[in-house]
Design goal:
The complex is a heterotrimer of chains A (645), B (261) and C (320). Chain A has 645 residues and is mainly α. Chain A is 54% helix and 4% strand. In chain A, the strands form 2 sheets. A 4-stranded parallel beta sheet of chain A has the order 2-1-3-4. Chain A has a 3-stranded parallel beta sheet with strand order 5-6-7, sandwiched between helices. Chain B has one domain: HUPs (Rossmann fold, 3-Layer(aba) Sandwich), CATH 3.40.50. Helices cover 30% and strands 29% of the residues of chain B. In chain B, helix 2 (71-79) crosses helix 5 (194-200). The relative contact order of chain B is 0.17. Chain C is an alpha/beta fold and 320 residues long. Chain C contains 8 helices and 16 strands. In chain C, strand 12, helix 5 (214-226) and strand 13 form a beta-alpha-beta unit. The two termini of chain C are 36 Å apart. The relative contact order of chain C is 0.11. The chains are: A mainly alpha (645), B alpha/beta (261), C alpha/beta (320). Strand 15 of chain B pairs parallel with strand 16 of chain C. The structure holds flavin-adenine dinucleotide and iron/sulfur cluster (SF4) (2 copies). Flavin-adenine dinucleotide (FAD) sits between chains C (207-209, 233-236, 247-252, 264-266, 268, 270-271, 274, 284-287, 290, 303-305) and A (578, 613-614, 617, 620).
Chain lengths: 645, 261, 320
C-alpha cells in the first residue's frame, strides 16, 4: 500500500508540473477582471459545467460525453470514498450506501463510461467527422481510458470471484466477470490475476494522471475553470475597449497583447470542433476556422514566444481567414467550455486595421464614407429622409421632448429596399399613438461597422459624438430598426457614458400589440419562416419577440428552419462583409437562402436591414420558379394591422 | 528628391444630387451639411508621391491654398506621413480661379526652395478646370506632363508613365518637372494608421499669407457668369408608339440625342 | 472678337472630332465675322477637308508623335498663334490637347477653360458652358482675356459646312529640341479593345433578365454601332455569362457615362450606386415597376429580345 502512495507523490508532482506549465503562459497576458459576480458564475458553472447544457446540444457526441462525464465523476467519487474508508479508516462504506452506491451505481456508471468511450472511439475511428482534430494523443487518451475502465472491472470481478463476495450480485458487471472467470481459474490464480491487474490498473491510472495535464484531457479541470471565468455579459457586449492614451500598439499581434483570460481560453479547448462546424464562413468553403485559431494560438502559446507576431503565422491566423468572419458569434455560442473566439478575431483585426492599415478595399471605402459622411454606403444617392415621404414625422429639435427616439439606421434609411421596412415601422408607431421623433439628416452611423471591422478609434469617435448629441436633446428611450444599432446602444454606449433605454423594433412592437395599442385586423394568408439576426438573437438573446409578431400577423407559428434561434445560420452580412464581394460559390447568404427556400415558406421574415439585403439577393438566386418573398417582421405586422393595404 | 504635392479641399463630391444646392448670388455650391474632403486626384497624387518615397526616399511637402478649414486636408496628409505641410491662407471672400491658384502655389513652391518634383491632381472634384498643373509649370518655367499614373527613378532620371486615349506613353524626364496625376488601380489612396492619425494633430503646419510670399492678389482670367442645376427628369418617360417599330424608333432617337450631346 | 484658330492632332485623320471642332470654329467665326484658321499637328491628315472649311490650313507634319513632346507642340502652336493673333483658340478634348491648352493660354496672355459642352461668342467675349461639381451643376464661364482658349467636346458638335473653294495648305517646319527635359521612350497601345468602363462615354449594360451569355453578343453588336462599352449587373457576372470585371455597382465598378442603357436589369440599390454619376440612364425591361425606371430619364417596357436588334437597325439608320 505504501508503494502506491509513494508512487502517487511523483505522479502528482508530474501532473502538478504539467498544470503549472499550462498556466504559466497566462501570466504574460494583460489584466482583466473575471472574478466579479461570483453567484452568477456559480450558476453558470452548474448549468454549463455540471449539466453540460451546451455539450448535449450535439446529439451523438453530447450523449457519449454525458456517459464518460458522469462515469468519470462517479468513479472518481467512488475511488475517493475507498481512499477515505480504507486508508484513513473512516468507516463510510457500510450498509445501504455501500450496496446501492458503491456497488451497484458505480458499476452501472462504470459500464456507461466504457460504452461512452467505445462510442467516442467509433466516431473517431469510423465516422471521422471533419470537426475533430486527429492526433495520436487523442487516440491514445481514448485507449488509456478504456484500459483503465476495463481493468477496473476485471479486478473487481476477480476479487468477487476470489473472495466469494456474498454481495457480489450488487455489482452486476463484476459479477458477470466473476461468473465467467470462476470455472476458468483457480482461486490462487484469480488472486494473482487480481493482484497483477490491480497494479496494471493503478499503473495506467497513475500514468494517465501524470500525463493528462500535458494533453487535451487537462480540460477536465481547465474547462470548468474556464466556464466559471467566462463572459457574463451578452455576447454583443464582449469586445474590450482599447486604451488609446497609454497603448503603443493597437489591437493584438502577439500573445502578450491578449488578456490573461484570452490565453486561459486557449488551454480550455477540448478540440471538439463545434465552433468550426457552426461557422458560416467555414461552412461556405472559406479558410476561416475558429477552432484552428484557438488551437494554433495554443500551440504558439506553448512554444513560449509571447512577443512573436501572430497574424500570418498560420493559415487560420492569416488575414484572409480573419477577414471572412461575419462576427455572427455562432462559435462563441457553440463552445461548450465558454471560449470566446470572436473577441480574439476582432483583436487581431484591430491590429490589421489600426496598426498595419491593411484591410479589404471595400471595407476601407465603407469606413472612409462612415468617417466623412456619417454612413458607410459610399456613393448612395438616397438621403436620410427619402423614406419619410408624406408621413409627417417630426424631427427631434433642440428643446423638444418626445417619449421615444426612432433610430432609423443607415441601412434602413439609405438602402432602397429597407426604406419600406422603416416606413412600415413608423406607420405602426403612429397608429399606436407613440409620441416619437427621428433625427433625420442629423442621424449618424452608431459605429458598429467600424467596431466590427476593427477600427476602434473611429468607433469611439462617432460613438461619443452620438452620445453627446442625444444627451443634449434629452433622449432617454430609443427604438432601433437595426439589431446592430440596437446592440451598440444596449451594450457598447453605456461604457462610454451613454445609458439609454433601447429596444429593437420587434420587441417594442410586440409590447404595443400586447398592450392592445396595435390590433392586427386580419390574418395574412402566408406561410412564414423567421431568420434570426445574429445581433438580436445570439448577441442579445432575443428570439421570441419577432416570432410573436409573425404569429400574430399570420395566425400561426412561423415554420422553423433546421438551424434557428441560438443555432441560427448567419446571412453573411455582419462584420463588414455586406460590403465586400464573396466568391460566387462561397456565399454564406446562398446557403442560408437555400435553407429558407427549402423550408417551404412563402415568405422569409427578417428583422435586420443587412439580412434583408443579403437574403433578398440570395433568395432571388435560389428560389427557382416558386416566388419567395423576403419581408421584415414590421412589414408583415403592418400588413396585418393596416386596413387599407 | 524634394517633392511638393498640391492638395485641394473640396465639397464632398459624393453627396446625393438631391442634397446638392447652389448659391445663385455667389455662384458656388452651398456647403449645407456636406463634409469637406481632399479632392480625389490630389489624394492620388499624394499616394503616388508616398509610393515613390517608399522606394527612393526623399521628402514630401504638402501644400494647399485655402481657408483655415483646409488645414484638415494637410492633417490627413500628415497622418499618411507627409514630412511637411504648408497652408497658404486665402482670406479672399470669393473662390479663386485657376490662374490665381497657380500663381499662389508657384510662389509658395519657390519659397519652399529646391523642389525637384511637383505633383498636382489632374483636375479638382468641384470645378474640375484641370489647369493648375500646367499653369504652375508655366509660371515656374518648368516642363509638365499630364495624366501621369506612375513615376519611377532610373539613374537619376524620372521614368514617367501617363495615360492617353489609346494607351500609355512612357517618358524619361530630368527634374525639376510638374506632373498632373490621374488615377489607376495602383494609386488608390492608402488609409492611415491610427497612431499616425493621433499624432498628426500635434505636428506644426507652416502658415503663409500672400504677404509672406511677397505677392499681390492676381486678377482672375475667368468669370463664372451663371451657375445652375440642370433639370434632371427623374420621372421616367416611357416611349410611346402605335407599334413596336414606332416605339423602338423613338427610343433610338432619344439615344442618338444623348450621344450627339 | 476676331479670328478663330482650331488646333488638332492629325493622327486619326479628319475624324468626327475634327469635324465637330471645325464646326464650332466656323460658327464662332461667323458670329465674330472673323477668319477661321486651322493648324494640324503631326501626320495623318492631309488638310484637304479642312481646306474646304477654313480660310487657312497649316500642317506641322514634322512633329512626330513617336517622339512627342508637349514642349515642342506648344512651341509650334505658340508661334502660329502669335503670327495669326486669333481672338479664340479651340482644341478638341483629347488628352494631348487638354495638356496644351492652359499652357498656351498662359504663354499668349489669354484665358482658358475646357471640357466645353457649348461655346459661343457674344460681342467681345467667348462664353463656355460646361458641367461642374461632377455633373451636378452647369456653369457658364466668361473668358476674360484674349485669346480665349477652349477645349471642347468636339464629337458632340455639329460638323461644318464645306465650301467649294479650297484654301491654301501650308506645311510648317518644326524643330525638336535635342535638350528637351522630357523624352518619349515608348508608346504602349492598350491590348484590350476600347476604353476602360470607368472612362466610357456610353455604356450598355445587361442583367439577369438576359438569361444567358449569348444575348450579350447582341448587346455587343448594339454597343459597337454607337461606340459604347458593354457592362453587366452582378447577377449576370455571377452567372458566369461575362467576366467579373464587367460588374458595375457597389462592389463593382463605378462608372460615369453620358448614357447608361440598362437592359434587363432590375436596378437594385447596390447596382445604382455604381451609376450614380451617369448623366442619362435609360432602360429596357419587361417589368414597368422595376426600380430602375425610377432612376431613368427614359425607357421602354418591352422584352429585350424584341427590342435589341431592331434598335441596332434604327441607330444605324440614324447614324448614316
Ligand atoms: C453585398 C452586396 C453587394 C452587391 N453588389 C452589387 C454590385 O456591385 N453590382 C450589382 O449589379 N449588384 C450587386 N449586388 C446584387 C444586387 O442586390 C442585385 O441582386 C443584382 O444587381 C440584380 O441583378 P439584375 O438586376 O441583373 O437581376 P434581377 O434583379 O433578377 O433583375 C432582372 C430584371 O430583368 C427583367 N427581365 C427579365 N426578363 C426580361 C426580358 N426578356 N426583357 C427585358 N427585361 C427582362 C426583370 O423584369 C428584372 O427587372 C450586390 C448584393 C449584395 C448583397
Ligand atoms: S463569429 Fe461566426 S463567422 Fe466568425 S469565426 Fe465565429 S462562427 Fe465563424
Ligand atoms: S473552441 Fe470551444 S467549440 Fe471550438 S473546438 Fe475548442 S472547445 Fe470546441
Amino acid at each position: 500500500m505504501w508503494l502506491m502512495y509513494a508512487l502517487l507523490v511523483p505522479t502528482l508532482a508530474v501532473a502538478a508540473y504539467g498544470f503549472y506549465h499550462r498556466i504559466k503562459p497566462w501570466f504574460v497576458g494583460k489584466p482583466l477582471d473575471r472574478l466579479d459576480r461570483p453567484a452568477q458564475r456559480i450558476v453558470r458553472l452548474l448549468k454549463l459545467g455540471l449539466l453540460q447544457q451546451k455539450t448535449i446540444r450535439e446529439r451523438y457526441a453530447g450523449f457519449f460525453h454525458q456517459m464518460i462525464f458522469w462515469g468519470f465523476i462517479v468513479l472518481f467519487i467512488a475511488t475517493t470514498v475507498v481512499l477515505i474508508d480504507y486508508d484513513f479508516q473512516v468507516p463510510i462504506m457500510r450498509g445501504a450506501f455501500y450496496l446501492y452506491f458503491q456497488s451497484f451505481f458505480v458499476d452501472v456508471l462504470g459500464l456507461l463510461f466504457l460504452v461512452g468511450i467505445a462510442l467516442a472511439g467509433w466516431r473517431r475511428w469510423w465516422f471521422r467527422p471533419p470537426a475533430l482534430v486527429y492526433t495520436k494523443e487523442a487516440s491514445l487518451i481514448l485507449a488509456l481510458l478504456f484500459v483503465i475502465g476495463a481493468t477496473g472491472f476485471l479486478i473487481e470481478g476477480w476479487r468477487i470471484a476470489a473472495t466469494n463476495d456474498p454481495w457480489g450480485a450488487w455489482s452486476p458487471v463484476g459479477n458477470v466477470i466473476a461468473k465467467i472467470s470462476r470455472p476458468l481459474f483457480s482461486e490462487d490464480a484469480l488472486l494473482i490475476l487480481h493482484r497483477s491487474f490491480w497494479w496494471l490498473h493503478m499503473g495506467t491510472t497513475f500514468a494517465f494522471l501524470a500525463w493528462a495535464p500535458y494533453t487535451k484531457m487537462a480540460h477536465v479541470l481547465l474547462s470548468p475553470a474556464n466556464i466559471y471565468l467566462g463572459n457574463l455579459d451578452p455576447i454583443g457586449g464582449s469586445l474590450k475597449p482599447v486604451d488609446f492614451e497609454s497603448s503603443e500598439i493597437f489591437g493584438v499581434n502577439s500573445l502578450a497583447q491578449f488578456t490573461w483570460k484570452d490565453l486561459a481560453d486557449l488551454d480550455a479547448c477540448t478540440e471538439c470542433g463545434r465552433c468550426t462546424a457552426s461557422c458560416p464562413a467555414n461552412n461556405s468553403g472559406k479558410p476561416l476556422s475558429p477552432r484552428d485559431i484557438i488551437l494554433d494560438l495554443q500551440k504558439l502559446s506553448r512554444r513560449g514566444e509571447p512577443q512573436a507576431p501572430l497574424i500570418g503565422a498560420t493559415v487560420s491566423l492569416s488575414s484572409e481567414s480573419l477577414w471572412n468572419c461575419t462576427t455572427c458569434a455562432a462559435c462563441v455560442e457553440a463552445c461548450p467550455v465558454s471560449i470566446e473566439q470572436l473577441p480574439k478575431i476582432i483583436d487581431l483585426r484591430r491590429h490589421l486595421v489600426m496598426d498595419q492599415a491593411e484591410f479589404p478595399e471595400m471595407m476601407q471605402d465603407a469606413l472612409g464614407s462612415l468617417e466623412n459622411r456619417g454612413h458607410p454606403f459610399r456613393g448612395t444617392q438616397a438621403t436620410r429622409l427619402d423614406w419619410v415621404g408624406d408621413l409627417d414625422i417630426p424631427e427631434w429639435g433642440e428643446g423638444q421632448t418626445y417619449d421615444v427616439l426612432y433610430w432609423v439606421g443607415c441601412a434602413g434609411a439609405l438602402v432602397e429596399r429597407n426604406q419600406k421596412t422603416v416606413r412600415a415601422t413608423a406607420q405602426l408607431l403612429k397608429t399606436a399613438g407613440v409620441r416619437f421623433a427621428i433625427l433625420g439628416r442629423d442621424e449618424k452611423c452608431t459605429g458598429d461597422l467600424a467596431r466590427r471591422i476593427g477600427n476602434e478609434f473611429l468607433f469611439e469617435t462617432v460613438a461619443k459624438e452620438n452620445i453627446e448629441r442625444l444627451q443634449s436633446l434629452g433622449v432617454t428611450k430609443v427604438v432601433t430598426s437595426c439589431p446592430h444599432c440596437f446592440n451598440t446602444f444596449a451594450n457598447e454606449y453605456p461604457r462610454l457614458g451613454g445609458a439609454f433605454e433601447v429596444q429593437h423594433h420587434s420587441v417594442f412592437l410586440a409590447d404595443l400589440v400586447r398592450n392592445g395599442r396595435l390590433k392586427p385586423s386580419r390574418a395574412i394568408e402566408e406561410t412564414v419562416t423567421f431568420h434570426d439576426p445574429c445581433y438580436l438573437g445570439r448577441h442579445n438573446g432575443e428570439y421570441d419577440a419577432p416570432r410573436e409578431l409573425v404569429q400574430i400577423s399570420i395566425g400561426k407559428d412561423p415554420i422553423e428552419m433546421p438551424r434557428s434561434r441560438e443555432r441560427s445560420f448567419c446571412c453573411g452580412g455582419g462584420g463588414g462583409l455586406s460590403f465586400v464581394e464573396e466568391p460566387t460559390d462561397q456565399r454564406v447568404s446562398h446557403r442560408r437562402a437555400a435553407e429558407a427556400v427549402e423550408s417551404g415558406a412563402d415568405t422569409v421574415a427578417v428583422g435586420c436591414p443587412f439580412c434583408m439585403t443579403m437574403l433578398e439577393d440570395a433568395v432571388n438566386a435560389k428560389s427557382g420558379d416558386r416566388p419567395v418573398k423576403v419581408k421584415d417582421v414590421a412589414e408583415i405586422l403592418w400588413q396585418a394591422v393596416n386596413q387599407q393595404a | 528628391m524634394n517633392i511638393v504635392v498640391c492638395l485641394k479641399q473640396v465639397l464632398d463630391p459624393e453627396i446625393p444630387a438631391r442634397d446638392f444646392k447652389i448659391n445663385k448670388e455667389r455662384r458656388e455650391a452651398e456647403r449645407g451639411s456636406a463634409n469637406l474632403v481632399t479632392s480625389i486626384f490630389c489624394a492620388n497624387a499624394l499616394e503616388t508621391a508616398l509610393q515613390f518615397r517608399d522606394i527612393h526616399g526623399g521628402k514630401i511637402t504638402v501644400l494647399t491654398y485655402g481657408t483655415v478649414a483646409a488645414e484638415d486636408v494637410l492633417r490627413k496628409a500628415i497622418a499618411l506621413k507627409a514630412d511637411d505641410a504648408v497652408l497658404v491662407l486665402n482670406d479672399q471672400s470669393s473662390s479663386p480661379d485657376p490662374l490665381q491658384v497657380a500663381s499662389v502655389l508657384a510662389a509658395a513652391i519657390k519659397k519652399i526652395d529646391a523642389v525637384n518634383l511637383i505633383l498636382v491632381g489632374r483636375e479638382s472634384a468641384d470645378w474640375g478646370a484641370g489647369q493648375t498643373g500646367g499653369l504652375v509649370a508655366e509660371i515656374l518655367g518648368l516642363p509638365c506632363l499630364a495624366f501621369v499614373d506612375h513615376i519611377d527613378l532610373v539613374d537619376g532620371s524620372l521614368r514617367i508613365r501617363r495615360q492617353t486615349e489609346t494607351g500609355r506613353d512612357v517618358y524619361m524626364a530630368t527634374p525639376p518637372i510638374v506632373l498632373t496625376i490621374t488615377n489607376d488601380d495602383h494609386n488608390l489612396p492608402r488609409v492611415p494608421k491610427t497612431k499616425d492619425v493621433m499624432l498628426s494633430s500635434r505636428k506644426p503646419i507652416t502658415k503663409w499669407s500672400l504677404t509672406d510670399l511677397g505677392i499681390e492678389p492676381t486678377p482672375g482670367y475667368l468669370k463664372v457668369a451663371e451657375l445652375g442645376i440642370p433639370e434632371k427628369n427623374t420621372m421616367c418617360e416611357f416611349v410611346d408608339g402605335e407599334t413596336l417599330d414606332d416605339k423602338v424608333a423613338t427610343l433610338a432617337r432619344k439615344i442618338a440625342d444623348v450621344i450627339q450631346g | 472678337m476676331q479670328d478663330v484658330l482650331c488646333v488638332w492632332f492629325g493622327s486619326s485623320g479628319f475624324d468626327r472630332s475634327a469635324e465637330g471642332l471645325l464646326g464650332a470654329g466656323q460658327r464662332i467665326a461667323a458670329t465674330t465675322k472673323g477668319k477661321l484658321h486651322s493648324l494640324v499637328l503631326g501626320k495623318g491628315d492631309n488638310g484637304s477637308r479642312a481646306a474646304a472649311i477654313a480660310d487657312s490650313v497649316q500642317i506641322a507634319d514634322q512633329l512626330s508623335l513617336d517622339a512627342y513632346s508637349p514642349e515642342e507642340a506648344l512651341a509650334v502652336i505658340t508661334s502660329v498663334a502669335k503670327s495669326l493673333s486669333p481672338g479664340a483658340v479651340l482644341f478638341a478634348n483629347d488628352a494631348y490637347s487638354q495638356e496644351l491648352a492652359p499652357r498656351l493660354a498662359y504663354r499668349l496672355g489669354g484665358s482658358a477653360i475646357g471640357d466645353a459642352a457649348d461655346v459661343v461668342a457674344e460681342g467681345d467675349i467667348l462664353k463656355v458652358t460646361r458641367s461642374v461639381y461632377g455633373g451636378k451643376a452647369v456653369a457658364v464661364y466668361h473668358l476674360e482675356r484674349r485669346p480665349s482658349v477652349a477645349w471642347i467636346r468636339a464629337r458632340a458638335q455639329a460638323a461644318a459646312t464645306p465650301r467649294s473653294t479650297q484654301a491654301e495648305i501650308k506645311h510648317i517646319a518644326t524643330s525638336a529640341d535635342p535638350n528637351a527635359a522630357t523624352r518619349l521612350l515608348e508608346r504602349q497601345t492598350e491590348a484590350h479593345e476600347g476604353v476602360r468602363l470607368e472612362d466610357a462615354r456610353w455604356i450598355i449594360s445587361g442583367g439577369r433578365g438576359l438569361g444567358g451569355p449569348e444575348p450579350f453578343e447582341q448587346l455587343k453588336e448594339l454597343a459597337d454601332t454607337i461606340g459604347a462599352q458593354v457592362a453587366a449587373s452582378r447577377a449576370a457576372c455571377d452567372a458566369g455569362w461575362v467576366p467579373p470585371s464587367w460588374q458595375v455597382g457597389q462592389t463593382g465598378k463605378r462608372v460615369a457615362p453620358d448614357l447608361y442603357l440598362a437592359v434587363a436589369i432590375s436596378g437594385a440599390s447596390q447596382h445604382l450606386i455604381g451609376i450614380a454619376d451617369a448623366k442619362v440612364v435609360a432602360a429596357i425591361n419587361t417589368d414597368q415597376h422595376a426600380p430602375i425606371f425610377k432612376h431613368c430619364q427614359f425607357g421602354i417596357v418591352e422584352d429585350y429580345k424584341k427590342v435589341v436588334s431592331l434598335l441596332k437597325e434604327k441607330l444605324q439608320a440614324l447614324k448614316g
